[in-house]
Amino acid sequence: MTQNEDSSRRYDSSHRKEQARQTRRAIAEAARRQFTRHGYAGATLSAIAKEAGVSVETIYVTFGNK
Q: What is the pTM of this model?
């Protein structure tokens, strides 16, 4: 492949966008379950993250806060 062909390729982020949607959905569902079980005050970010299979930092990046 020549350099000209490389520069004309467009980046397709559809797979990454779908992964981000799935991560956001997993966090939201885990948060809902935690809020239902423990109430808003009793649901911790670490418990939500653990249930969703993500890090606490991912929750902050995705939603900003609890």
A: 0.78
